[in-house]
Each structure stands twice: as C-alpha cells, then as structure tokens.
TrEMBL record:
NCBIfam families: yajC (TIGR00739). The gene is yajC. It is found in: Cell membrane. It is a single-pass membrane protein. Keywords: Cell membrane, Membrane, Protein transport, Translocation, Transmembrane, Transmembrane helix, Transport. It comes from Oerskovia turbata. Belongs to the YajC family. This is Preprotein translocase subunit YajC. One of its GO terms (biological process) is protein transport. Its main location: membrane.
Amino acid sequence: MDFSLILILALAAGAMFLMTNRSRKAQKEAAAFRTNLAPGQEVMTGSGLFGTIVDVDEEKDIITIESTPGTQTRWLRAAIAKLVEPPVEDDSTDEQGESTEEDAVHGDAARTSSVDDVLDVPDDLSGLTDKPGDKRDDGTDSK
C-alpha cells in the first residue's frame, strides 16, 4: 500500500474537521449573542442599519429598532449583526475647549487647518481642460 495517499487523506480529513469545528463555534457564539439582545443596546443590522433596540418580541423573534428619533422598524432577530460600542469621549480639549499640547504633537489636522487651505473645486470639468484657441499666460496658443 502507498502510505503517502493515506497520509494525505488523513491530513485533508483533519483540516476539514478543524474548519467545520470553527464555523460551528462561531455559529453558537452568534446565536448566544442574539438571544441576549435587550432594549437599550445599540446594534447594527446585517445590511448596515444602526439603531437602538426598543422592544424584543421573544415569541416571534422580532426586534424593534429605533434608528432616528421617532423612526422604528421591525427586524428578525437573525438580521442583527453586532453590537455597536458607544463612542469614547475625546479628552484632547481642556475645560475652555482649547486644544491640548498633545494635539499639536500628533498633528490634529482638523484643528490646525486654516482658511487658506480651502480648495476651489469647479462644479464641472469645463474649467479643468484647455479649449482650442485658448491663450496661455505667456500669450502663446495652448495647442
């Protein structure tokens, strides 16, 4: 008998077992996550909708999400993809709202930009290309 064929088949069977074991574990974790959903949690659906859970109907597996104040939508429990962590407050400003020294060291572009940095962007492409017969600054034809 050829032992290399048996070895290759054993390695393939082991790899398949490991891959299916990992996917089963991920499925169990996702199911446990969805069963523990409660009102007040901020979540994201599989399609990318962000919102806060306002109601959980255990019997029908329906979650009611409020995406904006007054806008509530109903989703299947399986459509909830993940919890969204609340944003962490930025401690880079002092009590007067001024930037700290750390911002200057790290180059906080939003706070160091000036009015001179604003670009003038045309509404269409007509201002970006030379037209036949246009003259350059030095008076020569642009062709």
